[in-house]
Amino acid sequence: LTEPFREALAIIETIEEAGHQAFFVGGCVRDFLLKRPIGDVDITTSAKPFEVQAIFDEVIPVGIQHGTVIVRHRGISYEVTTFRVEGEYSDQRHPDSVQFIDKIDEDLARRDFTINALAMNKHGYIIDLFHGREDIEKALIRAVGNGHDRFQEDPLRILRAIRFSSQLGFQIEENTLKAIMATRQSITGLAVERITVELQKLFAGKDVKTALSYMVELRIDQELPVLKDYHLIAKLVPIIQPLHTLAEVLCLIHQMEPELDIRIIGKEWKCSNKILREAFQLNQAVDYYKANGLDNWLVYQLLPDYYNAFYRITEIMFPTKIDKDELYRLKKQLNLTSKKDLNINGNDIIKLFPAVPKGPWIQDKLVKLERLVVLGELQNNNMILKDWLKWNPPEQK
Ligand code: ATP
Ligand code: MG
């Protein structure tokens, strides 16, 4: 066993010592076989949730009704889920009911794709009832069982198929494609939050280009909020590259389709305010870049946390690449680090023009001065800044 599994081994052993079965399951086994970095190690068990709770000291009952308990072990959280089968998804959000079972077989059968329907015991032996390993070798995403029924049951699986094609660079198997074609309209009933999570992962995947081609080919975009009224995805296919955050996606969409307001996209996709703020910041920088190119003011205004995001968007939008090091070089050479360091303040300005009523013009002047100093057009010196103001007094009505 390799590292993240070795760390989690104690959980499997403890459950087994209490007389139950337990396996590593799902994405972690898939990624282990693919030699990809392993995200969360999930565990599936015959122990019922109340039994799992009784076995461990540090537990968080996150989804008892669905059979999931979080077990904390050496600072890491593990989802431990009881073997189960699911009832109908009548609200297309959660199964109406789940039923706990004693054997792993049906638990694996309820999973979405063969590559995700893999379990591994503590010795590294893999249970593979649906030829998941073969599909991993063939780089194929194939629904477990009857695709048509499985997608109808939970249409999120359609988006998951495309998302995995982006993350893993896999093709979607022929019959699975047909099943998606036949059921795609059921996506409309999904909770938007679930859709957004998948879109974010899809855009971040290394093979996002393939994934977007699938979206166009299968006309999935025509079932999704915001995208359904545009042919944006088709336009993105030839130029797209991985985008790490949803804010980048929002910004790029707005740049490609200016009538789509960032606020509107954010609302339709139920994005957090944090993502919206980041998208606005990025968008401002991209607009400025379009008008002025790369200069000190751009670098000064954009938070360094967003440099990479800005770089990724401009790389997609413009034929000539920005030199990423240039961003940091300019940043280092700035003669002002924040507006607090500007050698003039609002009071100075008010004193210079005692006859002019206070108003937003003061702030405007400060920003103008800040920009001139940052661009190196004025020295950051109180006398010089005041002189500039004398030559550029506020307009009087
Ligand atoms: P990652 O965590 O890297 O995004 P994952 O495969 O671990 O990928 P999760 O969403 O964490 O995906 O789900 C864990 C496992 O649960 C999956 O591997 C799959 O077996 C199962 N699963 C998740 N969502 C569904 C679903 N909508 N329908 C059927 N099975 C699912
Ligand atoms: Mg996972």
Automatic annotation (TrEMBL):
An MF annotation (GO) of this entry: CCA tRNA nucleotidyltransferase activity
Ranges for domain CCA-adding enzyme C-terminal: 251-388
Cofactor: Mg(2+)
Keyword Transferase: yes
EC number from the UniProt entry: 2.7.7.72
EC category: transferase
Binding site for CTP: G27, R30, R111, D154, R157, R160, R163
Chain positions recorded as ATP binding sites: G27, R30, R111, D154, R157, R160, R163
InterPro entries recorded: Bact_CCA-adding_enz_type3_sf, CCA-adding_enz_C, CCA-adding_enz_firmicutes, NT_sf, PolA_pol_head_dom, PolyA_RNA-bd
Cross-referenced CDD domains: NT_ClassII-CCAase
Keywords: ATP-binding, Magnesium, Metal-binding, Nucleotide-binding, Nucleotidyltransferase, RNA repair, RNA-binding, Transferase, tRNA processing
Binding, Mg(2+): D40, D42
Record's catalysed reaction(s): a tRNA with a 3' CCA end + 2 CTP + ATP = a tRNA with a 3' CCACCA end + 3 diphosphate; a tRNA precursor + 2 CTP + ATP = a tRNA with a 3' CCA end + 3 diphosphate
Start and end residues of each tRNA nucleotidyltransferase/poly(A) polymerase RNA and SrmB- binding domain: 169-227
Gene3D superfamilies: 1.10.246.80, Beta Polymerase, domain 2 (3.30.460.10), cca-adding enzyme, domain 2 (1.10.3090.10)
Pfam families assigned: PolyA_pol (PF01743), PolyA_pol_RNAbd (PF12627), tRNA_NucTran2_2 (PF13735)
Domain named Poly A polymerase head: residues: 22-142
Keyword Glycosyltransferase in annotation: no
Superkingdom per UniProt: Bacteria
Note: A single active site specifically recognizes both ATP and CTP and is responsible for their addition.
PANTHER family for the chain: CCA TRNA NUCLEOTIDYLTRANSFERASE 1, MITOCHONDRIAL
Subunit record text: Homodimer.
HAMAP family for the chain: CCA_bact_type3
Family note: Belongs to the tRNA nucleotidyltransferase/poly(A) polymerase family. Bacterial CCA-adding enzyme type 3 subfamily.
Functional summary from the UniProt entry: Catalyzes the addition and repair of the essential 3'-terminal CCA sequence in tRNAs without using a nucleic acid template. Adds these three nucleotides in the order of C, C, and A to the tRNA nucleotide-73, using CTP and ATP as substrates and producing inorganic pyrophosphate. tRNA 3'-terminal CCA addition is required both for tRNA processing and repair. Also involved in tRNA surveillance by mediating tandem CCA addition to generate a CCACCA at the 3' terminus of unstable tRNAs. While stable tRNAs receive only 3'-terminal CCA, unstable tRNAs are marked with CCACCA and rapidly degraded.
Name of the protein in its database record: CCA-adding enzyme
